[in-house]
Amino acid sequence: MRLSQAFLPTLKEDPADAELVSHKLMVRAGMLRKHAAGIYSLLPIGWRVTRKVAQIVREEMDRTGAQEVLLPIMMPSELWKETGRWEKYGKELFRQRDRHDRDYVLGPTHEEAITDLVRNHVRSYRDLPQNLYQIGVKFRDEIRPRFGLMRAREFLMKDAYSFHVDDAQLHETYERMHAAYTTIFRRCGLTFVVVEADSGAIGGDVNHEFMVTADSGEAEIFASGCGYAASAESAKFAWTPQAEEPAAPMAERETPEKRTVEEVAAFLDVSADRLLKSLVFYAEEEPILAIVPGNRELNEAKLARHLGGAPLRLATAPEIERLTGGPLGFTGPVGLAGKIRTIVDATIQEGRNYVAGGNRKDLHLQNVRLGRDVVVSERADLTTAKAGDRCPRCGEVMVVSRGIEVGHVFKLGTKYSESMAARFLDAEGTERTIVMGCYGIGVTRIVAAAIEQSNDENGIIWPMPIAPYHVHVVPVNFKESRTRDTAEDLYKALMSAGIEVLLDDRDERPGAKFKDADLLGIPLRVTIGEKGLADGIVELRDRKTSAVARVPVGDAATAVIARVREALTTATS
RNA sequence: CGGGGCGUAGCGCAGCCCGGUAGCGCACCUGCCUUGGGCGCAGGGGGUCGCAGGUUCGAAUCCUGUCGCCCCGACCA
What we know:
Blueprint: H1 21-28, E1 32-36, E2 39-42, H2 44-64, E3 67-68, E4 74-76, H3 77-83, H4 85-88, E5 94-97, E6 103-106, H5 111-119, E7 130-139, E8 154-164, H6 167-187, E9 192-196, E10 207-213, E11 219-223, E12 229-231, E13 251-254, H7 261-268, E14 275-283, E15 286-293, H8 300-306, E16 312-314, H9 317-324, E17 341-345, E18 354-357, E19 363-368, E20 378-380, E21 399-413, H10 415-419, E22 423-425, E23 431-433, E24 435-442, H11 443-453, E25 455-456, E26 459-460, E27 471-475, H12 481-496, E28 501-503, H13 510-520, E29 524-528, H14 530-534, E30 537-542, E31 548-552, H15 556-572
Parallel strand pairs: 3-7, 14-18, 15-17, 17-20, 27-28, 27-29
Antiparallel strand pairs: 1-2, 4-6, 5-6, 7-8, 8-24, 9-10, 10-21, 11-12, 11-21, 13-19, 14-15, 14-16, 18-19, 21-24, 22-23, 25-26, 29-30, 30-31
The chain binds one RNA strand through residues 9, 11-19, 34, 36-37, 143-144, 146, 259-261, 264, 277-280, 290, 292, 294, 296-298, 300, 313-314, 316-317, 320, 327-331, 357, 474, 476-480, 507-516, 518, 527, 529-532, 539.
């Protein structure tokens, strides 16, 4: 590509509305422009990179035996009603209505569509397994889109869905996909970790997230030396039960205007872990009382999973008053037996005395004991791990870090096939439900993550396999005939060798060209100038290391080709 | 949804408090000049100041509403 003809609007200054380095650089490097919050156009350079990432994904998917399809962006609401997600997916689901007032969904993911497709064609165990994928646009009405491509409302995703006769067969594919994901992210030049994760609105049981490590990441990761790694939504932690205490009679304590854990703990002079934090939720129409220790945070994802994935919302103050008889801030589990489903966190012990709200203004109760005073509906792990917590496997203190989620693989089981009646006949002639897996990769998010992980004060530093071009040829003064001829010759030679070349044939000052070259971040730069030509050489500069090699003009093409091929194969292996 | 900030030329911003002919830098166009890290000089084009009402002789500026964008938070009692 000749820069003089390229649609490549680079910017000297950071855009005012960008926060993350990757977002700023993508806009400055002429890759990305915004139309509305979370809605972007990819410009030629940005799309080239995206296509390269998509191509790597495609190659590795094909290698697993998965087959590419294209599913509709817009789907009839009926499919989503079948699985219940029309109601359960919540506000993130973009909905559309046509002229006949029929409801549609702009797909945030495609379990429904693919299951509909497969159930109509798979009859026998002989038709299984199947593994289908697509690379397509997804829509999510994010609560707060931000960080450019990192959390957009419309984005490019690879989603794959596999169909099996049983768990063992699913496991085989799951492992293969897991391995393929590792290869994909490695080929994209990313540093990443694999963590155990929460399945959120997708559902299912076993699942892993692939996280690109970055301080700017939105996701928190807990990990320990033994290999345990988990996202904040799902991380477990070890805890040591404390000694039982003799039962003491429950006592009322006036706690005027003491609502928060801190206020109550200080007022009654007890530690925060003595307090039973009582939170009222609604899971659809059912009220839920969740009890966690005062020194820990309730983990909504864990609670939602315990409840089967229904969307949760916290009860409002009037609702709390109606349900418990007391105002917000003084809620507790005592005396609510039979009135509200009460789920108690696993770390709260029987045989110890706790403090809880009294369901009356300015009242707390002391020496509250599970079983005796509190009717427990269920026990569950309800809290989020925090810094200093110990690994559930090895007991070591876990390290907390941040990451960008770029991939997620799930064993779905029969969550969708059951509700959508996707069945097959086994060898015995018995009808059985198909077992599913699903596997996602945020293609556009990888682009952002790659930049987030590889840049310097001058711009982007692309890994060769996803760089928009392999080589950037910069003639210092394109008007000077020897420089121009050398550049043109090299340009043609490289192109005919299949190398992707960007030629800066603009009549710009060298400084401007170098700045743009650094900003664009193409891994190799060839500088051609009168000074070098006087010695019969051109300069080969490495964007990442800034190392410069002086290469005889006649060897330039060969040297570049060798370097590009080497960088491409190293990344692949 | 709550709190905060911002909407003035393609981009980055000043002007607004204190109403009176809309500015700066970059980018862009023309000419000259220059060519190894965002050259220089001269000339030039481009904005109904987000939108709608209101106050006023007069509104970018004051008031009301509305839309959009960004940041923080999103209920942990």
